[in-house]
């Protein structure tokens, strides 16, 4: 049935039904590559998309909103790392390392707006190899990125406050993490900006996630491992970067090792308080143990200690960063707390938090700060793409556990099969309200939802293939809930 999920890419790649004129690059080009392009063998299309999006490089970033290349917005910090992940996934699936030598004609000739238009008027061109585009991303972050969005103001964002248009990112050589953002912008996928003057959330990001978001750290590590390997094979000409404060080359291997040394120390909140001295913690904000922080080094430290599903994404991408037992305990907490019997997605916030609201209502015009005009977008509603990465993270932990069969793993997708069978879209939605309830403000068919779930399905079949060859028939959601939580789990 999952082959049906990927037969309508023109319809399912519309990322938000209310934004038909925009292309959300993070969702369409980068997070969706594996499931909707590589799984069905659309390698040519995958390569074309990578090349086209490489042309939008500016400030060492890939934009969030494309706007047909006219006035793209570089108000996200994660698309560039998802972009590199898409390249690695493409190379590993196709063995086409030569894509790194593809010539890219850049749309933008300078990071400076006036200089760009001057050079463009003079007829200048700028072409880089794809490997140079990747290197530009790494080097710009190592040197430090600081700019104000082009055309900042109401013409590009009618609610953002002045400080929100300022984007700053840099490498922390002590941890290997990329730090940045501020309390006035929201540069990751949790990008809801409040817009209600009545409720007082206008111009306030619901989730700034400044500092070092956990899934971004995993994505950086994933990209570093890729360029190290490509350099060894002679397809990538660079061995490292030159950080602003170092007087020597900082090799990609050093950078990756630095992340590995610091990841658990900086993100994990141990089950036992007596072990806290081994971790970078503020005990004042700990109210749930055995989990991973959402961010590290945020100006709003309290928010980082709340249970969210983003560590599942990190576990799916770079499981080597995690202590195995810590990760298992964390996923058990996620499954008990953030997933319900009829869920298609994962709750985006711990239900015991005051900010938690199980629904998304973009038309709400109340005085309620936490829900007015959809402020709860990423503070409770259940997002489907993250569920796919939850399963990918689980797969990374169970591949050597003989008690896990194809049937047991695929039972986690029973609700998804039933949903696909019941919708004309033959796809999956962006999000649902609590316990899988329909949300009228959600896109009915979204690229990254279908991609992540398809990837989990196909990887699950591949990883667990040797353990059972039985044709799996999906149970009902109620049966799935019973079967997926045996006493031994």
Q: Could you give the count of β-strands?
A: 14
How much of the sequence lies in strands comes to: 5-15%
Summarize the biggest pleated sheet: 3 strands, antiparallel
Cα shape: globular
Low-confidence stretches are 1-21, 469-478, 482-489
Q: What kind of assembly state do the chains in view correspond to?
A: single chain
Helical run tally: 18
Mean pLDDT: 90
- Helix-strand makeup class: mainly alpha
Distance between the termini: 27 Å
Strand order of the largest sheet: 3-4-5
Helix content: 25-40%
Rg over alpha carbons: 22 Å
Verbal overview:
This protein has 18 helices and 14 strands. 38% of the residues lie in helices and 8% in strands. The strands form six sheets. Strands 3-4-5 form a three-stranded antiparallel sheet. A three-stranded antiparallel sheet has the order 12-13-14. Mean pLDDT is 90; it is low at 1-21, 469-478 and 482-489.
Task: Draw up the topology in text.
Blueprint: H1 2-5, H2 9-12, H3 25-30, H4 33-38, H5 43-54, H6 79-94, E1 103-105, H7 113-121, E2 127-129, H8 130-143, E3 145-148, E4 166-171, E5 178-180, E6 212-213, H9 214-232, E7 240-241, E8 250-251, H10 252-267, E9 268-269, E10 291-292, E11 295-296, H11 301-304, H12 310-317, H13 324-338, E12 346-347, E13 382-383, H14 384-398, H15 406-410, H16 414-422, E14 431-432, H17 447-463, H18 477-483
Antiparallel strand pairs: 1-2, 3-4, 4-5, 6-11, 7-8, 9-10, 12-13, 13-14
Helix pairs in contact: 5-6, 6-9, 9-10, 9-12, 12-14, 13-14, 14-17
